[in-house]
Write a structure and sequence with these properties.
By secondary structure, this protein is of the alpha+beta class.
Length: 771
């Protein structure tokens, strides 16, 4: 190697080595830096990794929770019944019962409801300013949302979580749609399940119902304080007016109530109600529902509330008439809709019906007053008095007044003896059966002669033998007897002889009389067992008879032979205004006009005749047609009476069929007069309708035939034009003195010697002839 190259090599070596040394130094320096930075980086890396892991875990957890929640919600949604149908909402609307005063004005008798006092009203009758008042205080985005106001819902939720940071007071997130669902479903549990059900139902409801339909339903069921539910009931309660008449200020007053019905209604706290009313008006103004001028006028309007003391107390006892109406309508709803009694009762109490009745309000008050006074029934104080019932109707079947028991009425909807008790009719049944059948079918006349003798019937205790039946009741003798005498028809009815009634039924045929009574007088309690002599002759019916049906059956005797079904209501209107029940005043011509007139005159002798069992019922100014009735052992005592305006009847006895002690109560005819005499005399008519074709003729007091010039007479009989007896031709040579019908030897032997006073009976018959 040359020296020059050596020099070059030598010269270049330090430079290279210098670079290496420099590089080595820099590397060492970096290593020293790395050694210094390593722990911080690692720490940051660990922290980052942990945070990332937590985020990933959170994301995964949220995803799992969200998926699980979504699955739960979907399953919950599928299992939640969406059963809110506005066509079949279970709303309890108040039913009203009305009568009329003497001027023909409707008078509210009572209103009934299972729970709330609720009166349905259509949205068209609710003024716009009233609707807006409720909408803008309860749910200002009602017309925008689809059932759920999510903004309000989330706001209420956050406010609850944050302890009232968003709103100064606790806020609800429910819309009007949700409140409606809560009100009508009764689903008001305080949990998330209920809230979710409510949201689903609200969303579904809004899909197939209009806003107006939803708002109408809400305004008809929202709680308005006390028993008032719905805006119409509230309007009547607080202002005494229909919703359609409410002013802006009054509507806002009512809209203030639903937030806290028991605290914010104007009767409970007028100041609190006024304060919230102003909030309602501000909300309406803010949402441009009213102008500033309207706002100011409403704020300053002085409200005039009705007197709450006018409200009837919820524990007020209904009168006997209302009890009857409720039961009658319930039974007719059962038939109309094919439901049981309880279901029909729920329909009546919750259905919002309007029931119109033919009640005579003043008469009802007088009758109930008489029934609260024990002196009406007895002149002595009894430790265990019997019970009684009374009912009166006009000649088209309209029940005007009723009483179902003596003393203070114990409660509402209790047992009404006038309409619910089946009792024996006794002799009150005779005019409906043997007598009217025989007169109608021309089997007897006014003066037909009939013997007071029993008939022979099979002896149930001795097969193959017969016994004499029936006997006559006697209030003066220990023995029930028959006289063996012959009596004219009017005398037999006047004396209420069982034997004569039995002879009439036997002659006509018990089965024929049974069909006649059942069809012509509409007695619902008759059974096949009543198609026999005893039931048709003396009223010993298998199941008894309702007093209302017995009284109604007497209508033809004062009404030209026409029968009208008795009714306690004229018509029933449902909430939509449709008449669902209407009484049909369709007459049945039970007997001919002539038969009715003859029966009327025959029964007048029961009141006016010298031996009439109903003489105590005689009035001064109007005629009375009637019949007394007494059953075995004095268990039932009755009187049914007709005056030109009314047909009415009274019953008294013990509910458990005990004997009524003789002398403790007034007789049934006197009792009827005590209860109804003054009312009957104040009627508008003083005479029964006449029948021009009935013949008024003198009859022979020997034969009962039409008297000839030589017959002993002096009395007028009443005869149908189709059944006038022939003229008597048997009295040409006898004197003008009345002759008594012959008493046969056989008849005398049937008379108990101790029970019969022949001279007395002779005198009575002479009295009959002379009167």
């Amino acid at each position: 190697m040359s020296s020059e190259n050596k020099k070059k090599t030598a010269a270049s070596k330090p430079a290279h080595m210098a670079d290496e040394k420099a590089s080595s130094a820099e590397s060492k320096k970096k290593k020293r830096k790395k050694k210094k930075a390593g722990p911080i980086r690692k720490t940051l890396t660990v922290i980052g990794t942990v945070l990332l892991s937590l985020i990933l875990i959170a994301v995964i957890s949220v995803s799992i929770i969200a998926a699980a929640l979504t699955l739960y919600v979907m399953q919950f949604r599928e299992s939640t019944p969406i059963d809110i149908d506005l066509d079949s909402l279970d709303l309890a609307y108040t039913t009203f019962i009305y009568g009329q005063d003497k001027e023909g004005n409707d008078v509210e008798l009572t209103k009934i409801s299972r729970a709330a006092n609720r009166i349905p009203i259509s949205i068209e009758r609710i003024p716009r300013h009233v609707r807006d008042a409720f909408v803008y205080i309860e749910d200002e985005r009602f017309y925008e949302h689809a059932g759920v106001d999510w903004k309000r819902t989330f706001g209420a939720f956050l406010n609850e979580i944050l302890g009232g940071v968003i709103y100064s007071s606790r806020q609800g997130g429910s819309t009007i749609t949700q409140q409606l669902i809560k009100n009508v479903s009764g689903d008001d549990d305080s949990n998330w399940d209920r809230k979710m059900r409510e949201i689903f139902r609200a969303s579904d409801l809004e899909r197939y119902r209009t806003k107006d339909e939803i708002l109408e339903a809400y305004l008809n069921c929202v709680g308005m304080g006390g028993s008032a539910s719905g805006i119409q009931a509230a309007s009547l309660k607080y202002f005494g007016k229909d919703v359609s008449e409410l002013t802006l200020a009054e509507g806002a007053c009512l809209a203030a109530i639903p937030k806290s019905p028991e605290r914010l209604n104007p009767f409970a706290d007028p100041e609190a109600n006024k304060e919230r009313q102003e909030l309602v008006l501000k909300a309406m103004y803010k949402n441009a529902a009213i102008s500033e001028e309207q706002y100011e006028e409403a704020i300053n309007e002085e409200l005039h509330f009705r007197d709450p003391s006018q409200d009837k107390t919820t524990n007020e006892i209904q009168n006997w008439y209302v009890d009857m109406v409720i039961r009658d309508v319930t039974l007719d709803l059962m038939e109309l809709y094919g439901v049981d009694f309880d279901a029909a009762s729920d329909m009546l109490y919750n259905g919002g019906y309007t029931i119109h009745t033919p009640i005579d309000i003043e008469m009802q008050e007088k009758i109930e007053e008489k029934y609260r006074d024990y002196t009406t029934f007895s002149d002595s104080v009894l430790s265990d008095p019997p019970q009684s019932a009374f009912i009166v109707m006009d000649y088209t079947g309209n029940v005007l007044a009723v009483a179902g028991g003596i003393g203070e009425k114990a409660g509402s909807n209790i047992f009404n003896r006038a309409t619910m008790a089946k009792r024996q009719a006794g002799s009150c049944f005779k005019p409906l059966a043997g007598y009217s059948y025989s007169i109608e079918n021309n089997l007897i006349t006014w003066s037909t002669i009939i013997q007071d003798l029993p008939i022979e019937i099979p002896d149930e205790n001795n097969p193959g033998q017969t016994r004499k039946w029936p006997t006559n009741y006697s209030s003066t003798s220990a023995d029930n007897v028959w006289s063996g005498r012959s009596y004219f028809t009017f005398q037999a009815l006047q004396r209420s002889l069982n034997t004569v009634s039995a002879r009439l039924v036997e002659g006509a045929g018990a089965a024929n009389v049974f069909e006649f009574v059942m069809n012509k007088y509409q007695i619902s309690t008759l059974t096949a067992y009543d198609a026999n002599l005893s039931p048709m002759s003396v009223g010993a019916l298998t199941e008894g008879i309702y007093l209302r049906e017995l009284v109604a059956a007497y209508q033809p005797f004062g009404n030209g032979g026409q029968y009208f079904a008795p009714t306690s209501y004229t018509h029933v209107i449902d909430p939509s205004g449709e008449i669902i029940l209407q009484h049909q005043y369709t007459p049945i011509q039970s007997i001919s006009e002539e038969s009715a007139y003859v029966m009327n005159k025959l029964m007048q002798t029961v009141i006016e005749g010298p031996n009439g069992t109903g003489r105590a019922a005689k009035l001064n100014n109007v005629p009375v047609v009637g019949k007394t009735g007494t059953t075995q052992d004095w268990r039932d005592t009755l009187f049914v009476g007709c005056t030109p305006d009314y047909v009415s009847g009274v019953w008294y006895g013990y509910d458990d069929n005990r004997t009524v002690k003789s002398g403790t109560y007034y007789g049934s005819a006197q009792l009827w007069k005590n209860i109804f005499g003054d009312i009957a005399e104040a009627g508008t008519r003083t005479e029964f309708p006449q029948c021009e074709t009935v013949k008024e003729l003198y009859y022979c007091s020997n034969t009962g035939l039409i008297a000839s010039g030589s017959c002993p007479t002096g009395n007028v009989g009443y005869y149908k034009s189709t059944n006038v007896p022939p003229v008597c031709n048997k009295c040409g040579g006898h004197s003008a003195a009345p002759k008594l019908p012959e008493i046969t030897e056989a008849a005398i032997t049937t008379i108990s010697p101790d029970a019969i006073d022949i001279d007395r009976l002779t005198d009575e018959l002479l009295d009959d002839e002379n009167n």
